[in-house]
Amino acid sequence: MKKFGIAVDIGATNIRVALGDRKGTLIKKIKRKTAQKGNELTLANQIIDMILELINENNLKDIKGIGIGSIGPLDIKKGWIVNTPNLGIKNSNIVKPLRNFFNIPVYLLNDCVAAVWGEKHFGAGRKYKNIVYITISTGIGGGVIVDDHLLLGKDGNAHEVGHIVIDYKSKLRCGCGRIGHWEGYASGINIPNFIMYYLKKKKVKNIPWVKGLTSEEFFGLVKKGDKFAREVLKELSKIYAAGIASVINVYDPELLTLGGSVFLNNYELLFPPIKRYLRLYLLNRKPRIIKTPLGGDIVLYGGLALVFSPPPGLARIYSENYN
Ligand SMILES: [Zn+2]
Question: Which listed residue, of 103, 247, 284, 286, carries a Cα 20 to 30 Å from 30's Cα?
Fold first, then answer.
């Protein structure tokens, strides 16, 4: 029996590759800056080089497959990243070049979708059939399992929860170009825009620190007890609660886990008020809500889970399109 698997996490800034086993142990990990220039094969070649760096080519016979969680959007039938707004290279052919090179199964899913599959197999979700994972990071994204079934959608981009509309009359524009989206208010990259928007709406003047502020600096000010920063945090917590409650109202999970750098780095500041405000918006019975135990490696665990327990829906798509 082939004992090992390769997990890949393609992010806007970094690509991470890990060697792991079927029990979900990440044995060895490496990280490189994501190439921002090149053609449709550049990323695949970068990943091939990283895998070769991680394993001795002679050991390939022990590798069962490659599981990839990637920033999107994706076309999972083709195995491509397509028209991504967050990378220098807009379109990348991922699955085929890797399959041709290594001659083992290769699975590609949206990073949050892979992550929730990792949560189910190696994290807090083992005994649950209904699980949602939400990441609050540079963007906001989610992965959903309903009745043990991993939701994929026509292109593999189901449950783009970051683009839930939280204010239909908003003037605040999301990175995707539309208005009033949850991510446009509250993802790491957009918190500074929200602060400016909030200032304007409340006609607040004389806040010296807002210009050029990053979300890390904002959370630093909250920690220091800045009065206005605390007011903004309260408002942001309601926004997170509204988004999370909408997800719970739609998918009715038993377990909801939260991760992503913005959430994980500011857990003590964010989690108590988010939980408090949930009741304002929640219709469905409240699930168990926790910080993911898989931390910043959740997408890599997802990649491993794809290799050793490929979701039936994905396996079917692949057998239809790759044989
Ligand atoms: Zn959007």
Answer: 103
